[in-house]
Amino acid sequence: MNFRIEEKLILESLYKNDEPLSTTDLKSSTGIDTDAIGYSVRQKLEPEGLVEYWHEEDNGTEVRVHDLTAKGESEIQQGLIGDVFGESSESDPERVALEARIDELEERLDAVENKTQANKQLLDSLRSRIDKAAEVIQKHDRRLNGIRWALEENGVVDVVEYVKKVKSGE
Asked: For the whole prediction, is pTM greater than 0.85?
């Protein structure tokens, strides 16, 4: 028998709970959506005689309930189905290592996001300071142009010649 992870998770959940579970309970315990649970049970697990299901009424709503058959429980206990608990067991060293690596990567991602946010704030601050500096430069440029115009207009000094002398070091 070759089962997908979904079937193995359903078998594991039913085995661990040791009681019938509704589709909603299976969804909560496995994380598998209800359509995939229905497919796995009807197309794979029930035809193999490992799981049975029936409908019950709960507060006026029809609920599908699933349970391991004696054959399903026996085959899990004997290991005939394969490593049912290997994909989700917390004792699986590979899974534990992968989960630890995922946790580490999530922490690193959080640190990068925090640094990125801090750098964004710094960049915004620098942009604001540059904008203020540009305003000051424009203001002083207008004043200098006004002074240059006044000096040239009154014949006090030829500003262009004065600038050339300053640049040449005279």
From this structure: no
